[in-house]
Amino acid sequence: TVSTFFPEGNPETSTVDGFLEHFVANPGASWATIHDGAGTGASASAVTVRAQIDFSNTSGTPFGQIIRTVVLFPTDTMPDDAVISAATLDFAATAKTDQAQTNDLCLVAMAAGSPISNIALENADYLHTRFGTTIQAPVIALADVTPVDGSAYNTTPFTLNADGRASISLTAVTRFGVRVERDRADTAPTFVSSGQINVIFASAETGLTGEKRPRLSVTYTQPDDV
């Protein structure tokens, strides 16, 4: 059996998707401040979400922003005895930038109790410690993020590994985060004055034609099926 799940659009009653950010105006801040600091903004109603790192225009304080995305799915509607054998998370990219040319996109599980609410996001949800660091699917090279016009799901989805499949809950909402891989690894990218690294993709609030919301497809069996 294959079941397909989507986050809910605004106003949410069961699951949310959106982005969280820490922003510092020029001349910017250190990597530790941007990466480990508290959030300065949150949105659960934008038509796009993103994973992003922005550079400042000053090499001594080289970073201006990190943005992280949260995507929740109502997988608790699957049978409690389901045995998951495969899963993919698809997204429809609308734009990308990789001026540092060394960065990929990664999928992580959210830490227990993160985000604080299933139906809303707040600044506190940005904290690095609220995002897991175990990779839930092979990272996607930004070069493989195509198309970039939002006309279809990306040709290279996140194909969940064993850790990713184990993170899918049969009894509660499943919570994933999308980050730039350097953000997950806590490894500062090489400074590029006023540069940017990002992937922007359609959210549950998308106005694009057809189905472009983040989509989690889960393949499973039940004991009676064997």
As a percent range, the share of helical residues equals under 10%
* Dominant shape: globular
Largest sheet: 10 strands, antiparallel
| Separate helix tally | 3
Which structural class should the secondary elements be placed in? mainly beta
Give the mean pLDDT: 94
User: Oligomerization state of this entry?
Assistant: single chain
SSE series? EEHEEEEEEEEEHEHEE
Gap between N and C termini = 12 Å
- Our Rg estimate from Cα atoms comes to 17 Å
Low-confidence stretches: none
Protein model, in words:
Helices cover 7% and strands 37% of the residues. The chain is mostly beta strands and 226 residues long. The strands form two sheets. Strands 2, 3, 4, 5, 7, 8, 9, 10, 12 and 13 form a ten-stranded antiparallel sheet that branches. The longest helix has 6 residues, at 31-36. The chain starts with a strand and ends in a 5-residue tail after the last strand.
Features:
globular; 226 residues; four-stranded antiparallel sheet; ten-stranded antiparallel sheet; mainly beta
